[in-house]
Amino acid sequence: MKCTIHTPLLLFQCCNLRHFLLILHPNMEKQITDLLNAINEPLGGLMVAILSITGIWFTFRTRGVQFRMFGEMFRLLFNSGDNTEVKDKKTKRVSSFEAFTVSLASRVGTGNLAGVATAIVIGGPGAIFWMWVMALIGSVNTFVECTLAQLFKTHGEDSFIGGPAYYIMKGLHKHWFACIFAIASIGQFGLTNNMVQANTISSAFTQAFGFSPQIMAIALTSITIAVVFGGIQRIAKVCSVIVPVMALGYLAIAIWIIITNITMIPSVLSLIVKSAFGLDQAVGGTIGAAITMGFKRGIFSNEAGEGSAPNAAATANVSHPVKQGLIQTLGVFTDTLIVCSCTAFIILCSGLYNCGQNGIELTQVALSSHIGEIGKTIIAIAILFFAFSSVIGNYYYGECNVAFLCNGKSYTKAAIQGYRVFLGIIVFFGSLMTIDIVWAMVDFFMVIMTSCNLIAITFLGKYAIILLDDYRQQRRVGKDPTYKAETCPEIADETECW
Questions:
Q1: Whether pLDDT at 3 is above 50
Q2: Per-residue pLDDT tens digits for 376-397
Q3: 3-state secondary structure at position 211
Q4: Residue 238 pLDDT more than 90?
Q5: Which of 39, 275, 458, 485 has its CA 20 to 30 A from that of 20?
Q6: Cβ of 75: how many Cβ atoms within 10 Å?
Q7: How far apart are CA 476 and CA 454, in angstroms?
Q8: Angle between the 126-151 and 287-302 helix axes, to the nearest 10 degrees?
Q9: What is the Cα–Cα distance from 129 to 136, expressed in whole angstroms?
Q10: Is the pLDDT of residue 107 over 90?
């Protein structure tokens, strides 16, 4: 098959991953997708089990930090809006709140709208219960990984920089292992995940407003390039505006729906619990499906233990690593217990979860049943904010790991600029193409990077526990906790920022 390009429009049509694979072999797309899925299924199940085990272990070792210090998380967040800890006012720094919104921007995406709907369809309403359980258990993994990211961070050009690749290298001294994580992270966040997010935005606006996919591709690419070429400073500023607006707006709609359907809430909660334990088979989904889908969708949505949030957490300018670890833990609760729950109640209160729709279409139908046809428009706009914020948040995760692989060499800046241009290409074609195979690639890279990160935090988690004890001791005597390298003398040489 020969693809002759005569016009830009034909270029859009021909540069489609499915068409490209068909040129190489008629069944290549299906074969590659089947192969990746065959790898992802067993490894994905193992990953969920390990995430649960590490969550339970660290909950025990930290004495339930995600529960006992819940109030402290809010105190730190409310006091983190300004760069109050920057000693040199001329120095550019990312505030704790800005780092929080960058990670939350990546967390809160299409999984909160489409992923929750899919979990309900396949696993039944009980999947929501297990999604909540996963968030409560897994949030401690986020505390540990983000505290480690702060501990082992290094100085970057415009801010601090760090993440799993850095604490694997500096804490475990395994450069090859850190490189595997970095490559998987670039593949997951910098490439495949952003193709999915761009495609979701384009599809939603095409269906809701009749916009041409080509126009959406050009618009999305232009805005993305304008933001990411400003570096982490601009990304943080944009996220600190977009994230609160989109989260509060969606929450307001959900609260209004809950209030107008307040008499249904007890029965909806009963339905969730009964379905979670297989006590109401009539609603669809077995107990096994409920647990599996709840855990998987929960992990995909809140990213706890995946190794993504630490890249953003490391940029924050704080006096003690535990401060950012606690603040980032709130991101898991915000994503799953608030935003995902909003979608769940919108769908379950509509009574349409068995209507034959799935994914984002189910969420649109459910919202429309509550507020009319404008529901489809609202979901399209919500997707724009949710998915676009994920694109720029994901981009930064990739940039951190590009910088790690370049290791401060003279070509680092050129590599990052090239990565930014390539991201524009990814967003452009992701807005146009069919992406069945890309979903399999997203899962594949996620399994690799999550496995690497879980191994790392299992061995390095002891330092997060030492730092947590140090933080608590200082708070008990009324101090504003400050970390000093001599607290962990055996790694003092690797903690250059302290």
A1: no
A2: 777 778 778 878 878 877 888 8
A3: coil
A4: no
A5: 39
A6: 12
A7: 31
A8: 30
A9: 11
A10: no
Average the pLDDT over 136-156 and give the result.
Answer: 91
Q: Collect all residues with Cβ–Cβ distance below 8 Å to 227 and sequence separation of at least 6.
A: 234, 235, 238, 392
pTM of the model: 0.83
The terminus-to-terminus CA distance of the chain in angstroms comes to 60
Least confident range from 79-93, 117-131, 437-451: namely: 79-93
Burial class (CB in 10 A: 0-12, 13-18, 19+), 72: middle
Q: What share of the chain is helix, strand, coil (3-state, %, to 5)?
A: 80, 0, 20
β-strand partners of 160:
155
Burial class (CB in 10 A: 0-12, 13-18, 19+), 378: middle
The stretches of 372-495 forming alpha helices (DSSP H) are 374-406, 412-430, 436-476
Give me the amino acid identity at 409: K
pLDDT of residue 11: 42
Question: Using only C-alpha atoms, what is the Rg of the chain?
Answer: 22
Residue type, 57: W
Quote the CA–CA distance of 256 and 374 in Å, as a whole number. Answer: 15
In whole angstroms, give the CA distance from residue 9 to residue 118. Answer: 33
Question: Apex CA 123: angle with CA 110 and CA 271, to 5°?
Answer: 105
Look at residue 285 in the predicted model and tell me its pLDDT.
53
Across the chain, mean pLDDT equals: 80
Digit-coded pLDDT (tens) for 73-97: 988 888 865 544 444 444 556 777 8
Under DSSP, the state recorded for 210 is -
C-alpha 401/C-alpha 138 separation (Å) is: 24
* Token code pair at residue 109: 């995406």
For residues 50 and 52, what is the distance between their CA atoms, to the nearest angstrom?
5
Picking from 424, 466, 7, 470, the residue whose alpha carbon sits closest to that of residue 219 is 424
**DSSP alpha helices (H): ranges in 108-209?**
110, 116-123, 126-151, 164-167, 175-185, 193-209
Question: What does the pLDDT read at residue 7?
Answer: 42
Report yes or no: 304 and 141 within 8 Å, Cβ to Cβ: yes
Do residues 384 and 149 touch, judged by C-beta distance below 8 A? no
